[in-house]
Sequence to fold (552 residues):
Amino acid sequence: MNGLHDTQRRFASFVLRDRGQVQAQAQTVVGIKANGLEPEQRMAIYRNNTRLGLTEALRDGYPVVNRLVGAEFFNYLAKSYIQPYPPKSGCLLSFGEQFAEFIADFQPAEGLPYLPDTAKLEWLWHEAFHEGHETELDISALATIDPNLYDELGFTLHPSARFLASDYPVLRIWQLNQADTLGDERINLDEGGCRLLIFRPNLEVEIIPLNDSEYLFLTLLESKLSLTQAVEQVYLKNAIFDLPASLQHWVANGLLTNFYFI
Amino acid sequence: MAYVQQPFSAGATVPVSAGIGLRSPHYEDVLETRPDVGWFEVHSENYFGKGGAPLTYLERIREDYPVSLHGVGMSLGSVDVLDVQHLGKLKGLIKRVEPGLVSEHLSWSSFDGNYLNDLAPLPYTLETLLHLVDRLAQVQNYLGRQILVENPSSYLEYEYSTYQECEFLNELSRRSGCGILLDVNNVFVSCHNHGWNAFEYLQGIPAERVGEIHLAGHTLNRVSGQAILIDTHNRPVCGEVWELYQTALQHLGAKPTLIEWDTDIPSLQTLVAEAHQADSFMEVSYERAA
Fold:
């Protein structure tokens, strides 16, 4: 009953559940010295610290969502999220990964349809921020490739590259809700969606809006299609696409870091 | 590209002087101003990513300063199996930055794979002692080095504990070969919260096993009228903790001492000034000993 396993099971159960659920379970608080307080009050200090710590960790990763909904609603959102999705590791870098999907199903946030994609953008930014480094591809190496091999030529993207397509102007929402943004410029949700590349060429994460052709082209390369296959699909959708210029651009800015033969 | 380790110009050994916690808002400032502090400590888990700004800045700063890795998420005392992925990342980070010290906490923070992101208290029993000795053997073998274990701040005691905390830490260090990271603020906070005697606590700690001291600020909360101190790391070290630090120095001798400040982070100069305060107390302790 008072072994280490039982102690930790009871403690975790008290700390990770909310008050109502805990009261339903008797026996959660046993073997704790009162020493002037109710044992429950002592346990509640830990529950409060845990909740506060995890809420702030989530807020650190989602500053724009926090700004959009306000700190108080964010606290409620965080509290609701932590119960089904507590951290699964002692390193918090992966904590908050399901936040966008959670918000999409969270009824009290229904009135803000752009919120899930905004959260998704913040998560992709966070992933890109911590990804590995890669050196740039020497563009002259491309010139040595026999054009007959283009059918089998594929490209590796920088490990930090992430893509997001949204029906909402989430890049403008993100930009206007940075901590150092002043003014009260309004965003009209009818201005339409966006297609974004999130990528960290060096130390700073960049969010780059793409047109439909570029978005399609790069996501196809990322899904391991050959250059020829990717270009064919792009031309099927949109005749206006300058392949040499595009390749040169994405090699020069470090997005395409290597090539391979399929 | 494969990562190629370059030798750092600063040695690995953490000197017997004051260091400060390295936090991201200060990266640029540290590189530009090269503050006069002996070393820096970081939270290991913040550098478990694959690359980017955190690791780049840490390596640049490591060029010129010794570094200590302080873990907050290993969940050393948990009954869950040790997270080998976590240990693997820590080992990789150790290889990358060559720290002078590596530390963790006398606590647990996960159950059934769910993590609290908080340092939960352990019952101080023989069962816990044997469990921790086993865990430390696994950790120290895997990392190929000694680690320091830090006394926590706590807000409750278990009725079934059979050791006092300092006694437990002492015994754990003796049996596992781990060193002790003595957090003087945590001694102050826990002693206040449980009515322990802080001087007796310090006397119970064997000087030769202490590899590092921590100092930090705490906050007073009232629960049903009773004053409970919470370890918040959000303000300067208070006068009473500085006094206890001086007592600790008399008993332990000078030790590498860290100023920890994690939330409402002040300017770098404020942290450096706190570190200089600790250095000046260490000077006095040398003079007394001479």
Observations:
- The CA atoms of residues 173 and 187 of chain A lie 7 Å apart.
